[in-house]
Amino acid sequence: xxxxxxxxxxxxxxxxxxxxxxxxxxxxxxxxxxxxxxxxxxxxxxxxxxxxxxxxxxxxxxxxxxxxxxxxxxxxxxxxxxxxxxxxxxxxxxxxxxxxxxxxxxxxxxxxxxxxxxxxxxxxxxxxxxxxxxxxxxxxxxxxxxxxxxxxxxxxxxxxxxxxxxxxxxxxxxxxxxxxxxxxxxxxxxxxxxxxxxxxxxxxxxxxxxxxxxxxxxxxxxxxxxxxxxxxxxxxxxxxxxxxxxxxxxxxxxxxxxxxxxxxxxxxxxxxxxxxxxxxxxxxxxxxxxxxxxxxxxxxxxxxxxxxxxxxxxxxxxxxxxxxxxxxxxxxxxxxxxxxxxxxxxxxxxxxxxxxxxxxxxxxxxxxxxxxxxxxxxxxxxxxxxxxxxxxxxxxxxxxxxxxxxxxxxxxxxxxxxxxxxxxxxxxxxxxxxxxxxxxxxxxxxxxxxxx
Length: 452
Hints:
Layout: H1 6-20, H2 25-41, H3 57-60, E1 65-66, H4 72-79, E2 90-94, E3 97-98, E4 113-116, H5 117-122, H6 128-136, H7 147-154, E5 159-164, E6 174-180, E7 189-191, E8 194-199, E9 204-213, E10 219-229, E11 234-242, E12 247-257, E13 262-271, E14 274-283, E15 289-298, E16 303-312, E17 318-327, E18 332-341, E19 348-358, E20 364-373, E21 378-387, H8 391-399, H9 404-420, H10 426-438
Parallel strand pairs: 1-7, 2-6, 5-8, 6-9, 7-10, 8-10, 9-11, 10-12, 11-13, 12-14, 13-15, 14-16, 15-17, 16-18, 17-19, 18-20, 19-21
Antiparallel strand pairs: 2-3, 4-5
Helix pairs in contact: 1-2, 2-7, 8-9, 9-10
């Protein structure tokens, strides 16, 4: 068997998708243009400002093949740890393919459709969901400047579509679970999940996007999510990343919000060799409220990169952003948060903060909060803090009978709890808190160690 050079593997993957994945002519043309753009761009390097501190050479130098559907036994073993307990409504994708028998959307209100993107593209045109896909797919996630988005679009096969019609409230959280189950000892595989969420005027929905993987083989998850919220819509979004130690996770989320819409996102990154989360939110109507929160943990030699852009395009909008990181070992993190206030976006209220806790002398973070303000009647603040555990607080806890390790764990937990407590879905919050506690020193997880 001939080993493919990386460039050849993507050309072969594109040809396989073109031949086998059904799509209307407009989507087929979109794929073609996206692959041409990916070929022209190539993977980013550290010479690109947006990737200055994130070296994706391990990804660019690997010949990934499109993941094949997993064996049922392997899928069950790999899926279970990543499912959000207590949430029974949603879709499961294993190795990029929809698993209908393990998905359940029977409890949704009338008119709400949560389904496979491949199924929508293969269906007869004319339905409301098909029209929503044709109108909004790739409308926010442009292929011109980002190679990973272009690659996802070129290799678009399957993913999730969430369509909530106007004036509809979805009470039950909807989980979209994407799990990679690479064959033991097999060649590196890749998946390119696509999520499209269209929420109509005055509708409300809560979504949980979960990504994970198993095994020891390298794999790439290259995900793109697009959210379109109409006037007065409310979208509460959660994302968890728990890739395997050999897994790479590159993802972007593109959000467009109409007048008086509300959007909140809570992203928690716990595992993965290289994880990059890009979020771009366009506040495209008056009175929009947008909240972006993130918590990331990294140890060993892992890298977590969070890039966010909130574009205030209209007046009387507010945005709030808080990201916190806990780094140990030789882990590295990047945070780049940009707030753009357009010339007509008067009365903007924007707040941004990034806080990092370094548990070892070798851990490091590169943080860069940015403001670009073109209006004059605004309130905008941003800031970043990087530090270690407070020695006075440690002394206080130890003076009250706690051991050194126990006192440190209390402070680490308190640092993270500020964000975990903002997660409104109790099963998600409790599960993430258990995972955090399992990684603290002395817990048996053995993931984190605090110098001292």
